[in-house]
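Milestone 3.1: sequence recovery, worked example.
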């Protein structure tokens, strides 16, 4: 057998594994379950699946996995004629932690328009963790806590999400009516969508904007309308989505410049403990303060620095120092410090 054929079979098996595990679980959970019922539930959870595929999967479970599955004509369904567990390979501690983190984080989507989808995935993960004795069923939610705050959009973005994801996969341009945050105007744009991503609970997609003639980021909750087209596009060969995303300090990916900030000894201890951006460098001073240098977008850095109040001082560039001075004067006037 050629290496290519073997590799293709392994890939096909990996794709099939979640489905056949779910089929096994359905048979295990029910005294008798019909072929039609299995097909209906699998189609709902995994997408349209034929009866023929389900029959083939059950044969795989019996012949390849040696599962004790039989069919009862009298009861019209499949059942396990002896106690059995699905033969998953033993998980490493890191893999167990990854599954627990995933199951825990899915709870954060309750109350959003993605709740139903994530709830089904959460239930599958928890079923897996229980069935493999990774952790007792009554301890899954209490085993791990992640302080993750999900920002819930005020508008339903599920339909937009599905359409954009489809356009990305099929490499088709889309037409959007977009409410720009900076100009406070709604414009119609043709966009070639490249990638969907989440930042602090808000969904964005990046793509080539034909109106602005450059790659831009668009928040899904600011899209007023979206239309699919039949126009195909080609993603530039030199575009690397991960390089693109990490180029921002937080979310803005506009022009970047060299910025130097001084943090006092109190705040410096915390700043030194984290890698805020891959371009950062830190110079430690004798009194415990630090000079923090970064290549970033000034608007993002301005908001970030002002959040630390008197503990942070922008040293360079001078133009950014002046912008922050103006903000401080405005604040002083608002709070009655300056008249």
């Amino acid at each position: 057998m050629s290496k290519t054929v073997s590799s293709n079979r392994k890939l096909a098996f990996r794709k099939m594994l979640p489905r056949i595990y779910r089929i096994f679980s359905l048979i295990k959970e029910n005294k008798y379950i019909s072929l039609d019922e299995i097909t209906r539930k699998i189609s709902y959870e995994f997408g349209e699946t034929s009866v023929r595929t389900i029959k083939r999967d059950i044969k795989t479970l019996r012949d390849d996995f040696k599962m004790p599955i039989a069919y009862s004509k009298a009861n019209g369904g499949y059942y396990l004629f002896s106690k059995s567990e699905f033969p998953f390979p033993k998980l490493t501690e890191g893999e167990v932690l990854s599954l627990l983190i995933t199951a825990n984080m899915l709870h954060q989507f309750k109350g959003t328009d993605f709740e139903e989808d994530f709830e089904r995935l959460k239930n599958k993960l928890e079923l897996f963790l229980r069935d493999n004795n990774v952790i007792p069923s009554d301890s899954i939610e209490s085993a791990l806590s992640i302080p993750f705050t999900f920002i819930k959009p005020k508008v339903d973005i599920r339909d937009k999400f599905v359409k954009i994801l489809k356009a990305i996969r099929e490499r088709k341009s889309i037409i959007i009516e977009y409410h720009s945050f900076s100009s406070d105007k709604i414009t119609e744009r043709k966009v070639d969508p490249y990638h969907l991503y989440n930042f602090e609970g808000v969904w964005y997609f990046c793509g080539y904007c034909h109106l602005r003639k450059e790659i831009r980021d668009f928040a899904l909750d600011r899209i007023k309308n979206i239309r699919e087209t039949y126009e195909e596009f080609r993603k530039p060969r030199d575009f690397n989505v991960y390089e693109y995303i990490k180029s921002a300090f937080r979310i803005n990916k506009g022009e970047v410049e060299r910025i130097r900030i001084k943090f006092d000894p109190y705040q410096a201890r915390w700043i030194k403990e984290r890698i805020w951006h891959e371009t950062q460098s830190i110079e430690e001073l004798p009194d415990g303060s630090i000079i923090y240098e970064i290549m970033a977008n000034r608007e993002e850095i301005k908001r970030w620095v002002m959040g630390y109040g008197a503990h942070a001082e922008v040293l360079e560039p001078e133009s950014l120092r002046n912008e922050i001075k103006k903000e401080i004067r405005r604040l002083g006037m608002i709070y009655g410090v300056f008249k």
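The first strand starts at residue 69 and ends at 72. The CA atoms of residues 272 and 282 lie 8 Å apart.
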